[in-house]
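[step 3/7] inverse_fold.run input=structure_tokens len=365
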């Protein structure tokens, strides 16, 4: 796919700075969801600060309020609507700009509810239009009207977006966007789109620059990192090898792999690496083969255990973390016992456990 440069948006950054003048503006950002959302917020902060805004943690002292949303679990919706309700009078009194973006904005029913019940917001942007934030903000400031910038097609990959990281030692680097797996419980392919991988040279250049800035720990991010495709046969294992070679980087992590794509070449790279963390995240979701089939996870309990044991045999010091969903529709006591059986056998270092949350999907894609 075509890789685009962010330079075109820089003119809008300058236009917003001109509108704001010499007055230092303040902004607040609330991030909900996963590390990919956090990485998106770092990009939003990078763009916003280049436009002349200073970060502030008090929503009652700012000129711009940004919500970067998640739609994996329902409590994120409740949190967003609660925050918006709290800001109604502040918006009326000060005219502060309210911008709402992220995964939740890709859902039609959320868009409709916001327009109907919280019409005082100023900007709505989706996962595929984050790069246009400066342009959308400029249109709000200059034209004094609401901007809705959400597209249903898969977005392009933009390189060169400014990024503001809070941590000076650890950094996350997105290597791919979207997902092709369509697990039945997951809304991600509908709101993040299909898999699109960044070019290896762009990823490596970003990490090399981070190393020069003093960063020591890198986390490679993607909805399914081990299906990364850099083109011309360049796979995730090749990327890991090349990141390993970058001087200054001392620790490499990656999130999240899919068990069905955890190939032998990746295991071999981890085994031989002196930098890749030996705490591996291996999402289980359920230990029941019946539930896994209904989840469309494409592996059985036995295949998962076989993979984990293969990794442990090759890398004796490895420990695992995992994700587990409880209460999936139709899950029986026997199914749950199968999950506990896997937990007992693998003795996970860490388990992220969630109660199943029904989500409304836009399946028109």
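[step 3/7] decode complete -> sequence:
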């Amino acid at each position: 796919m075509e890789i685009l440069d962010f330079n075109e948006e820089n003119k809008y950054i300058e236009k917003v700075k001109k509108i704001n003048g010499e007055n230092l503006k303040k902004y607040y950002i609330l991030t909900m969801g996963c590390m990919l959302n956090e990485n998106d917020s770092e990009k939003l902060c990078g763009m916003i600060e280049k436009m002349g805004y200073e970060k502030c943690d008090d929503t009652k002292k700012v000129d711009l309020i940004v919500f970067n949303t998640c739609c994996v679990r329902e409590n994120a919706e409740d949190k967003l609507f609660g925050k918006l309700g709290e800001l109604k009078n502040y918006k009326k009194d000060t005219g502060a700009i309210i911008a709402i973006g992220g995964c939740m904005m890709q859902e039609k029913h959320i868009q409709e509810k916001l327009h109907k019940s919280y019409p005082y917001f100023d900007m709505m942007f989706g996962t595929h239009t984050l790069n246009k934030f400066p342009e959308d903000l400029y249109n709000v400031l200059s034209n004094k009207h609401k901007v809705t910038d959400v597209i249903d097609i898969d977005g392009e990959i933009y390189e060169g977006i400014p990024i503001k990281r809070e941590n000076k030692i650890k950094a996350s680097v997105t290597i791919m966007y979207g997902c092709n797996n369509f697990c039945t419980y997951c809304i991600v392919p509908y709101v993040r789109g299909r898999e699109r991988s960044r070019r290896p040279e762009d990823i490596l250049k970003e990490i090399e620059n981070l190393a020069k800035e003093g960063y020591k720990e890198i986390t490679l991010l993607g909805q399914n990192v081990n299906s990364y495709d850099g083109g011309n046969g360049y796979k995730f294992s090749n990327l890991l090898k090349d990141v390993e070679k970058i001087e200054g980087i001392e620790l490499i992590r990656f999130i999240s792999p899919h068990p069905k794509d955890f190939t032998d070449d990746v295991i071999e790279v981890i085994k031989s690496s002196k930098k890749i963390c030996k705490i591996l995240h291996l999402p289980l979701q359920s230990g029941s083969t019946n539930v896994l089939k209904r989840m469309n996870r494409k592996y059985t309990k036995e295949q998962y255990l076989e993979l984990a044991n293969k990794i442990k045999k090759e890398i004796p010091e490895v420990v695992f973390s995992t994700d587990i969903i409880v209460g999936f529709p139709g899950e029986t006591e026997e199914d749950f016992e199968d999950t506990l059986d896997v937990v007992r056998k693998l003795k996970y270092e860490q388990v992220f456990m969630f109660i199943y949350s029904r989500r409304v999907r836009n399946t028109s894609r």
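[step 4/7] annotate
The longest strand covers residues 319-326.
The CA atoms of residues 220 and 254 lie 4 Å apart.
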